[in-house]
Amino acid sequence: MPDPKNRSGQAGADTEPRAPETQPETGTETDADRRRRRAQFLRELGEAKALRDRVQPRRARAARMRQAMRMRTFRW
């Protein structure tokens, strides 16, 4: 009898283990797990920003100029 949940037509397609990132949250994560995932996210975010700056130099320069203007006009 075919598995009604398996619509791909392949037997045993959903027997592969899921990656840790795709598993549902169980509420038992430790602070170390959360910090590790946050550090990974921040690394990937930095890489994405660097890539965007390389492929869109005009927009990156304009963003730097706007940030510099904000910093110059900021009042303590």
Please provide a written account of the structure:
The chain has 76 residues and is mainly alpha-helical. 55% of the residues lie in helices and 0% in strands. The protein is built from two helices and no strands. It has helices at 31-55, 57-73. Helix 1 (31-55) packs across helix 2. The longest helix is centred in the middle third of the chain and has 25 residues, at 31-55. The protein is elongated and about 45 Å long. The model has no long low-confidence stretch (mean pLDDT 78).
Descriptors for this entry?
76 residues; 55% helix
Class computed from helices, strands and strand pairing: mainly alpha
Count of DSSP E strands? 0
Q: So what's the overall shape?
A: elongated
* Helix share, percent: 55-70%
Estimated share of beta-strand residues: under 5%
Calculate Rg over CA atoms: 22 Å
Main beta sheet: none
Order of helices and strands: HH
Short summary:
This protein has 76 residues and is mainly alpha-helical.
Helix and strand topology:
Blueprint (H helix, E strand, L loop, with lengths): L30 H25 L1 H17 L3
Helix pairs in contact: 1-2
